[in-house]
Design a protein that fits this description.
heterodimer; A: alpha/beta; Rossmann fold; Dna Ligase, domain 1; D-amino Acid Aminotransferase, Chain A, domain 1; 8 domains; seven-stranded antiparallel β-sheet; 19% strand; globular; B: alpha/beta; Glucose Oxidase, domain 1; 2 domains; seven-stranded mixed β-barrel; 25% helix; 32% strand
Chain lengths: 1062, 355
C-alpha cells in the first residue's frame, strides 16, 4: 500500500532533555523521521523541549515547537496546528507515556487526532507487565516467574515465594528506573519502597533471578501487512543482571546456534503480532540459559529505542526513517534499501564484520555513589566500533572510549572488581588474564560466556608474546594491528617508542584499509560511503573526493561533552556542504545524528584517537580538518593532525594554545587590561600554603586539563585547602599543577559565544546564569537576554569579548565565561571552539552561529554575509535554559551544585516574558510546581536576609514555612511564621523524616563549606529520592518562586521557533 | 606453509591452513550469520567450496542433530576467523576428520567482491610454500575434479529406495525423488504424512507408480538442473496427474519438465536473508536460499503462474499451477539454516494440493 492519501500533517513528539536511558539516539531517530516525512511532502510539526538537538533546528520540520512535553502544552499545539495524526514512537518512553496521557485525557479524541505507529493498547500491552505476561502465555513464550506487586505487604509474601536474589522492575519507568536486584530481605524491603514510588502506577514486577543467563536483543520491524524482519541481533557480553544499556554488546549475535536463533526469531515475531504492533520498529529482549539453552522473554519495547539507533548504525538499516514511512502507510517492500539503492527494505542485513558497543560511565562525578551495575541504567553515553573480527572490534571500541591511548592499559587486578559488575570490569578481565587467571576462573566469577573470555585471553596471550620478544618485525606488527593494538599500547609492550612504531608502519605500509558498511556482506554493489577501518583487508576501494573537509566529532556522550557538540558538528557539515565542500565525518558515537550515513558525504565510524584520525587523513587527503565543532576531543588532537600535514581550518594552533594555556592567556588579559581573578598554579600543598594569601579565600581549586570541572571545588579556608590536597594529591604534580583561582563569591556569571571572521566578528548572545558564581556553567540555569545585567554592562561585555577574540586571532568560534561583580567584568575562561551553550544561543537569539563559524573558517568576508540580520538584542522572546540531573540514578550522590558539572542534559523554556520562560524551563527539567503545603528552608548565614522576601511571597501564595533552628529563629524574629524542625543530629523526628513522610512540598537548602555540605546531605538526598524540588542556591529559589507564581495564571502559551536566515 | 585458495581464473588468496586435505570445487559465498554445520551437510553444496561472509565461525561447537544429511558435502570451508580454543575447536576437528580443508585469516570480503562481480569459478584450497607452487597444485586438482560426472544430483542421491513412516496415520503417502535432500524436508513431510517413499533421483515413473503415491516431492540438490538425468521424464509422467512439489533443484527440474529453461545466475543466492513475495500465502517474508541456477520466467508455460518472486533481483522464486497441480519453490521452506516463515508451504502442499 502506498502512503495514506488523506494524510497531510503529522505531529512528532520528541523525547525531551538528555537523561540517562534516553539520550541523543532520539535526536537521531526524530531527525531521520522528520527528514523522511518532509520528503513525502507532509507537513511535519515537531515538539521537543531540548534545544541542543538537531531535530529542533527550524529547517528539520515544517514548524518546530520548543515547548514542554506536557499534555496541556501539546493540546495547545494540537489546537493551533490541527495535525491529523501524532507519531509517538520516535521520542522514547517520554513520547509514549505522553501519548497515553493525551489519549486517556481524551485530548486526541477531542481533536480527532490519530495515533500512528502504536495505539494505546499496544503501548499498554508492552509496558504493563501483567498484560504483557498474559500475551506471552498466549504465544507460548516463557518468562521468569514473577508477581506484580502493588503494596509492601504483598511484596513481602512474594519474596518468600520466589526466593533471593530478586529483580525489581517498576512499571512505566525509563531505563529500568527505580529497579534493581535485591540479594537480601533488608535490601529488598528498602528497594521495594523506592520502586513502588518510582512507578507512575505504583506497580512493581518482582521477578525471580535469571542472573548469569545470556542476554539478547532482537531489533525488529513490521509493516501493516505483517512483513517482519529482524534488523539486527545483539548479544550482551555482560550476562543478565546488568541493564542492556550498561552492557557491552556485540552484533551480530555470536554464540547461538542457528536453531536457537531461529526459535528466538519466531518467538519475537509472534510477540510483536500478538501485542498488535501495526507498524514500526520494536525490540524484544531474551535471556538464554548458558547450559540448557532454555529461553525466556525479558521485555519488549514497541518503539524505536537506544538499541535501534545502535542497530541502525551497526547494519546501515535506517530503522527510524523506515518506521516513519511505515507509519504513514508504506510497506517494507515499497521502500528502497538506501545503501544498495537496488534492493528493497524487506530483508535482513547480513554483516561481514563485528560490532561492539561499550557504554561510557560517569561514576567519578557522583562522589559517594558506588560503581556497581545493576538493572537500572547508569551509563551516560556509548561508543561503537566495527572490526572484521571481534578482537579488532572490541579493541577499537575500547580506544573509542577515550580513556587511554593504550586502549587496554595495565590496571591492578582485584577479584572484587571482576565479580561485581562495574564500569571498569572489562579492563579487569584483561588484567586477570595478564595475571594468569584462566577462562574457567573468570567465567566462574563473571558468568560471561567463555567465548568472549577466550577472545580476550587471545589478546593478552599476544601481549605476553610481545613482552617476551619485544622486537617488532613486519609480520608481528601486522598481526598486532589486526588484533587492534594501538601504537601507544605497542610501545608499552615492546622496546619501540610510539614514533618508531609509526615509522615502521609507514616503512612497511601497514595501514588500515577502509571497508564499506553495505547491509549485505558484499552481495550487492553499494554506493553509500559509510566506512570503517580494518587491518585485515589487503586493499581499500579508492576514494577520490575533491576538497573534502573532515569534521571531527565529539565521541561518546559524557557529562561535559554531549549532544550540544553533535549539534555543532551536524550543523557544520551542512554549512560546509552549502559552501561547496564535501564533508567527511569522523565519530565513534552511535547515538548521534552526525553518524547517520546521510548526514555527511562520507562517514568514518572510527575511534577519535589521533592515530586513527591520522589514518583517515592519510586515506582521504582532505582539504583540511575542523577541530572547533566537536568539543575538546578534536582540539586535543589538533597538534598531531597538523604535524601529520593536514591543514587546520579556522583558528590556528597558536590561537588554540593562547586560549588553552593558562599562563599565556593571563598574560594576554593583562596586556589588554582585562580583569582576571587572582590565580596561581601550585604543584603541592606546601606551595599552596605559600600562595594562599596571593589568591585569597574563597578560592576555586582544580587540577590542570580537566573537562566539565572535574575535581573542581570551592575552598573557603585553610582546613579545606588541606583536605582538598589530601583527597586529590594523586592528580596534582609539578608537571600537572593545581590551579588556585580567586572565587568571586556572589558574582553574576555569563557565557558569551562569538564568531570572528577575517574582517568581522559577531556576538551571538550573552547568556546570564541564574545561579551565582560557583555553579558550573553547564549546571546553572541561564537566560537570554540577561535579566539582571545593565545594558551598558552587556555592551562592555561585547566590546571586551571582541577585543579578546581579535588579540587571540580567533577564526571561527570563541566561547567566553565571564563573571561580573560590582559592574567589573572578569574573564574566567576562554574556549577557542563551539561550546555547550551554542545550540541554546542559536535558538534563543536566532543567530546561526555554526553557519557563521563555518563561513569564518572559509575566509568569507563581511560584505558577503548579512550580519545585520543577526542581533540577539532584538529577539522578542525570553529563553531560559533548564538543566536536568541524574542524581536519582546514583544512590548516595549529593544534588548540591558546585564547580563540577553533573547534569546530563538541558532544556529550553521560551516565553513572552521572563517568568513564563522560567516556568517552562522548570517544567521541562522534570520539576513539578506544588501549589500548596509546606516549604522547608535550611539556609547558610548569608542567604537568610535575602530569603525573607521569598518566604513572605510563599506565605502570600498560601504555603507554610518550616526551617531548622537557625533559619526558623531568624524567620520568626522577622515576623514570618515558621515551624521549627530538628536537624538530623538533633534527634527524631527531624526535618529529613518530615521530607521522607511526604509532608514537605519543596525545599530550599543553601550551604557551603565541606562540613556543612556533609551535614545537610540527607536533606537533599531525601528530596532526590522522593522527587521533591530542592533548590540549593538562593537565586535558583527565587527563580523557582517567580515561575511558581506564573503557573497561577493558568495560561498555556506556545509559539513555534522563527525561521532562521542563513 | 600457508593455505592458498586459487581460482581457476588466476586469482590467488592466502590464509591460514587449519587441516583437512587439499580439494577443489566451485567457490561460492553464503551470507548466513549462523548455521555452518547445516550448510556443510547440505548435499546442495556438493562440489563447492563455501566462503562464509560472517567472519567468526565455529563459535557454538557442533551438534549431530542439526546434520542435514549423513555426511559433509562441501569441498572446503573458508572464513576470516575460526573458533579454536582448548574448550572448543569442535568445528575445526569435525571438518578435518572428514578431510575438508578449512582456510581462515583470508580477506573474505575481497574474495566475495570478486565472486560477486566475476561469478563463481572453480578453485582449490591447497597448502604450499609459494604462490607458484599453490597455483600449480590447484590447477591439477581443479582439472582432475571438474570433469567428473556432470549429473551431480546422481552423485549425492540415495542409490537405494528408503521407506520412512510418518507421524500422521491419516495423512498421504508421498513419493520423494531424492536429488540430494536435506533432512529437514523429510522431517517436515513426516509430520503430515503416513509414509514417505524416498526414491533415487533416477527412479523411473513406473517404479514410483508401483507405490501409488498421493503426490510427488522433488527435493533440493546440487549442480546444473539441465544435467540431471531421467528425472525430467519421471516428473513429466506425474505432472497433471498427481500433485508435485519441487524445492530448489526440484523446482528447477520441474520447470524443465514443464518445458521451461534454466540459466546460471552470476553468483547465485546463498544466505538466510532474501526477501520473497509469496502470492500463494499472500505475504512477504525473508527466506533461506541456496541455488546457483534460476528458472527463466519467459519460458514457463502459460498455465503456470509465477507466484513467488525474489525481491532482491526479481528472479523467479516459485511457480504454481492449479491445473497441473504443481508447485515449485526456488528457496528453502525447510529452513535449516534460516528463517521458518516459508514452512507453511508444506501445509499448502498437503492441505490444498493433496486434498
Amino acid at each position: 500500500m502506498p502512503k495514506k492519501k488523506d494524510l497531510k500533517k503529522v505531529l512528532i513528539l520528541g523525547s525531551g532533555p538528555i537523561v540517562i536511558g534516553q539520550a541523543c539516539e532520539f535526536d537521531y531517530s526524530g531527525t531521520q523521521a522528520c527528514k523522511a516525512l518532509m520528503k513525502e511532502n507532509l507537513e511535519v510539526i515537531l515538539v521537543n523541549s531540548n534545544p541542543a538537538t538537531i531535530m529542533t533546528d527550524p529547517e528539520i520540520a515544517t514548524r518546530v515547537y520548543v515547548e514542554p512535553l506536557k499534555a496541556d502544552f501539546i493540546e495547545k499545539i494540537i489546537e493551533i496546528e490541527k495535525p491529523q495524526a501524532v507519531i509517538p514512537t520516535l521520542g522514547g518512553q517520554t513520547a509514549l507515556n505522553l501519548a497515553l496521557e493525551l489519549h486517556s485525557k481524551g485530548i486526541l479524541q477531542k481533536h480527532n487526532v490519530e495515533l500512528l505507529g502504536a495505539t494505546p493498547e499496544v503501548i499498554r500491552s508492552a509496558e504493563d507487565r501483567e498484560l504483557f505476561r498474559s500475551i506471552l502465555d498466549e504465544v507460548g513464550a516463557k518468562y521468569p516467574k514473577s508477581h506484580l506487586v502493588r503494596t509492601f505487604e504483598h511484596a513481602k509474601n512474594v519474596a518468600e515465594e520466589l526466593g533471593y536474589p530478586l529483580i525489581l522492575r517498576p512499571n512505566y519507568t525509563l531505563g529500568g528506573g527505580g529497579g534493581g536486584i535485591a540479594y537480601s530481605p533488608e535490601e529488598y524491603q528498602r528497594m521495594i519502597v523506592q520502586a513502588l514510588h518510582e512507578s507512575p502506577t505504583t506497580e512493581v514486577l518482582v521477578e525471580e533471578s535469571i542472573l548469569g543467563w545470556k542476554e539478547y536483543e532482537l531489533e525488529v520491524m513490521r509493516d501493516a501487512r505483517g512483513t517482519f524482519v529482524v534488523v539486527c541481533t545483539i548479544e550482551n557480553l555482560d550476562p543478565c543482571g546488568v541493564h542492556t544499556g550498561d552492557s557491552i554488546t556485540i552484533a551480530p549475535q555470536q554464540t547461538l546456534s542457528d536453531r536457537q536463533y531461529q526459535e528466538m526469531r519466531d518467538e519475537a515475531c509472534k510477540i510483536i503480532n500478538r501485542v498488535g504492533l501495526q507498524t514500526g520498529g520494536a525490540n524484544v529482549q531474551f535471556a538464554v540459559h548458558p547450559v540448557t539453552g532454555e529461553r525466556v522473554v525479558i521485555e519488549m519495547n514497541p518503539r524505536v529505542s537506544r538499541s535501534s539507533a545502535l542497530a541502525s548504525k551497526a547494519t546501515g538499516f535506517p530503522i527510524a526513517k523506515i518506521a516513519a514511512l511505515l507509519a504513514i502507510g508504506y510497506h517494507l517492500d515499497e521502500i528502497q534499501n538506501d545503501i544498495t539503492k537496488t534492493t528493497p527494505s524487506c530483508y535482513e542485513p547480513a554483516l561481514d564484520y563485528v560490532v561492539t558497543k561499550i557504554p561510557r560511565f560517569a561514576f567519578e562525578k557522583f562522589a559517594g555513589s558506588k560503581d556497581l551495575l545493576s538493572t537500572q541504567m547508569k551509563s551516560v553515553g556509548e561508543v561503537m566500533a566495527l572490526g572484521r573480527t571481534f578482537q579488532e572490534s572490541l579493541m577499537k571500541a575500547l580506544l573509542s572510549l577515550e580513556f587511554s591511548a593504550e586502549g587496554i592499559p595495565d590496571v591492578e587486578y582485584s577479584t572484587e572488581l571482576v565479580s561485581y559488575p562495574n564500569s571498569k570490569r572489562i579492563f579487569q578481565l584483561f588484567q586477570g588474564f595478564r595475571d594468569g587467571k584462566t577462562v574457567a576462573e573468570l567465567s566462574e566469577l563473571t558468568q560471561i560466556h567463555p567465548w568472549f573470555l577466550e577472545q580476550i585471553q587471545g589478546l593478552v596471550d599476544f601481549e605476553k608474546s610481545l613482552r617476551r620478544t619485544p622486537q617488532l618485525d613486519k609480520a608481528k606488527l601486522l598481526e598486532a594491528k589486526r588484533k587492534g593494538f594501538s601504537d601507544a599500547r605497542l610501545s608499552r609492550l615492546t622496546s619501540h617508542n610510539e614514533k618508531e612504531i609509526f615509522s615502521m608502519r609507514e616503512k612497511h605500509k601497514i595501514f588500515p584499509h577502509y571497508l564499506q558498511v553495505d547491509t549485505c556482506a558484499g552481495e550487492f554493489e553499494s554506493a553509500t560511503p559509510y566506512f570503517y577501518s580494518s587491518y585485515w583487508p589487503e586493499k581499500s576501494k579508492p576514494l577520490q573526493i575533491e576538497k573534502a573537509v573532515v569534521v571531527i566529532g565529539s565521541g561518546p556522550n559524557r557529562i561535559g561533552q554531549g549532544i550540544e557538540f553533535d549539534y555543532s558538528c551536524v550543523r557544520g557539515v551542512k554549512a560546509y556542504q552549502r559552501h561547496g565542500f564535501p564533508v567527511a565525518m569522523v565519530n565513534s558515537n552511535p547515538e548521534t545524528v552526525s553518524t547517520d550515513y546521510d548526514t555527511s558525504n562520507v562517514l568514518f565510524f572510527e575511534p577519535l584517537t589521533s592515530e586513527s584520525v591520522i589514518e583517515v587523513m592519510r586515506y582521504l587527503k582532505p582539504h583540511g580538518f575542523v577541530a572547533q565543532l566537536g568539543g575538546q576531543t578534536p582540539i586535543n588532537m589538533a597538534h598531531q593532525l597538523v604535524a601529520f600535514g593536514t591543514p587546520l581550518l579556522g583558528s590556528s594552533l597558536e590561537c588554540i594554545d593562547l586560549a588553552e594555556d593558562r599562563g599565556l592567556f593571563s598574560q594576554i588579559c593583562r596586556e589588554l587590561d582585562l580583569k582576571i581573578p587572582n590565580s596561581l598554579m601550585v604543584g603541592s600543598y606546601q606551595e599552596a600554603l605559600q600562595s594562599e594569601a596571593t589568591v585569597g579565600y574563597p578560592m576555586i581549586c582544580r587540577p590542570s586539563y580537566v573537562l566539565g570541572g572535574r575535581r573542581m571545588e570551592v575552598v573557603e579556608n585553610r582546613d579545606e585547602l588541606k583536605s582538598y590536597f589530601d583527597r586529590h594529591k594523586e592528580f596534582i604534580t609539578s608537571e600537572r599543577p593545581c590551579m588556585m583561582d580567586q572565587f568571586l563569591a556572589g558574582a553574576l556569571e555569563v557565557d558569551v559565544d562569538l564568531v570572528r571572521g577575517v574582517d568581522w566578528n559577531i556576538v551571538g548572545g550573552i547568556v546570564e546564569h541564574i545561579e551565582a558564581a560557583g555553579v558550573h556553567s553547564g549546571d546553572s540555569m541561564g537566560v537570554l537576554p540577561p535579566q539582571r545585567l545593565k545594558d551598558e554592562t552587556c555592551e562592555k561585555i561585547e566590546t571586551l569579548s571582541k577585543k579578546l577574540a581579535d588579540r587571540l586571532g580567533v577564526i571561527g568560534h570563541l566561547n567566553l565565561q565571564l563573571a561580573i561583580k560590582n559592574d567589573v567584568v572578569y574573564v574566567l575562561e576562554a574556549n577557542p571552539r563551539s561550546s555547550r551553550s551554542v545550540p541554546f544561543v542559536v535558538k534563543a537569539a536566532n543567530v546561526p552561529l555554526i553557519d557563521l563559524g563555518v563561513a569564518a573558517s572559509l575566509g568569507v568576508k563581511a560584505k558577503d554575509l548579512h550580519l545585520e540580520n543577526y542581533n540577539w538584542r532584538k529577539v522578542q522572546t525570553v529563553a531560559v535554559k533548564g538543566v536536568v540531573f541524574p542524581f536519582k540514578k546514583f544512590q548516595e550522590s549529593d544534588s548540591i551544585l558546585g564547580p563540577e558539572m553533573k547534569s546530563t542534559g538541558e532544556t529550553m523554556g521560551r516565553g513572552r516574558d521572563y517568568p513564563e520562560a522560567l516556568m517552562k524551563a522548570f517544567l521541562t527539567s522534570q520539576m513539578t510546581f506544588p501549589q500548596k503545603g509546606e516549604v522547608f528552608f535550611s539556609l547558610r548565614e548569608k542567604d537568610k536576609e535575602p530569603s525573607l522576601a521569598l518566604a513572605k511571597e510563599l506565605i502570600l501564595l498560601g504555603f507554610q514555612i518550616s526551617a531548622t533552628r537557625g533559619t526558623a529563629d531568624f524567620f520568626n524574629k522577622s515576623g514570618i511564621e515558621c515551624l521549627m524542625l530538628k536537624k538530623v543530629h538533633e534527634g527524631r523526628p527531624n526535618c529529613v523524616d518530615r521530607i521522607r513522610s511526604g509532608d514537605v512540598s519543596f525545599v530550599v537548602n543553601t550551604t557551603s563549606g565541606r562540613e556543612s555540605i556533609e551535614a545537610s546531605f540527607d536533606i537533599r538526598r531525601a528530596c532526590t529520592d522522593y522527587s521533591i524540588a530542592c533548590l540549593t542556591e538562593s537565586d535558583a529559589a527565587e527563580a523557582f518562586i517567580v515561575a511558581l507564581k506564573k503557573t497561577r495564571d493558568r495560561q498555556v502559551f506556545v509559539s513555534p521557533l522563527p525561521s532562521m536566515k542563513i | 606453509m600457508s593455505a592458498y585458495l586459487v581460482l581457476e581464473t588466476g586469482e590467488v588468496y592466502s590464509g591460514h591452513w587449519n587441516g583437512g586435505s587439499e580439494r577443489a570445487g566451485e567457490v561460492v559465498f553464503n551470507t548466513s550469520h549462523s548455521g555452518y554445520e547445516e550448510i556443510a551437510t547440505d548435499p546442495s553444496y556438493y562440489s563447492q567450496i563455501v566462503v562464509m561472509t560472517n567472519p567468526m565461525q565455529g563459535n557454538y561447537s557442533v551438534d549431530n542433530s542439526v546434520w542435514e544429511s549423513k555426511r559433509i558435502w562441501i569441498e572446503g570451508f573458508v572464513c576470516l576467523q575460526i573458533q579454536k580454543s582448548p574448550r572448543d575447536q569442535d568445528w575445526i576437528r569435525r571438518l578435518s576428520e572428514n578431510g575438508i580443508p578449512l582456510m581462515s585469516e583470508i580477506d573474505t570480503r575481497n574474495l566475495v567482491l570478486r565472486l560477486r562481480s566475476g561469478g563463481t569459478p572453480w578453485g582449490a584450497i591447497v597448502q604450499a610454500e609459494t604462490e607458484a607452487e599453490a597455483f600449480a597444485k590447484a590447477k591439477t586438482l581443479i582439472e582432475k575434479n571438474k570433469h567428473k560426472n556432470k549429473d551431480w544430483v546422481w552423485d549425492v542421491s540415495r542409490k537405494e529406495k528408503e521407506i520412512r513412516p510418518g507421524q500422521m496415520a491419516m495423512g498421504p503417502r508421498l513419493a520423494v525423488l531424492d536429488f540430494g535432500s536435506k533432512e529437514n524436508i523429510l522431517r517436515e513431510l513426516e509430520k503430515y504424512c503416513r509414509e514417505l517413499h524416498i526414491f533415487p533421483s533416477r527412479a523411473s515413473a513406473a517404479e514410483i507408480e508401483k507405490i501409488n503415491p498421493d503426490g510427488l516431492m522433488l527435493t533440493n540438490g546440487p549442480g546444473d538442473p539441465a544435467d540431471v538425468e531421467v528425472a525430467q521424464d519421471t516428473i513429466r509422467h506425474f505432472v497433471g496427474k498427481k500433485p508435485v512439489f519441487g524445492i530448489c533443484m526440484g523446482h528447477q527440474v520441474l520447470a524443465l519438465a514443464l518445458g521451461a529453461k534454466t540459466y546460471k545466475l552470476k553468483f547465485g543466492h546463498r544466505g538466510s536473508n532474501h526477501p520473497i513475495r509469496d502470492e500463494l500465502l499472500n505475504k512477504i517474508y525473508v527466506s533461506s536460499q541456496n541455488h546457483g541456477y534460476s528458472v527463466d520466467v519467459k519460458t514457463l508455460p502459460s498455465d503456470v503462474k509465477v507466484t513467488h518472486t525474489n525481491l532482491n533481483d526479481n528472479t523467479v522464486a516459485g511457480f504454481y499451477s492449479e491445473k497441473l497441480k504443481c508447485l515449485g519453490i526456488q528457496y528453502h521452506p525447510e529452513a535449516c539454516p534460516g528463517p521458518h516463515e516459508a514452512q507453511q508451504l508444506f501445509r499448502f502442499f498437503i492441505d490444498k494440493m493433496l486434498n
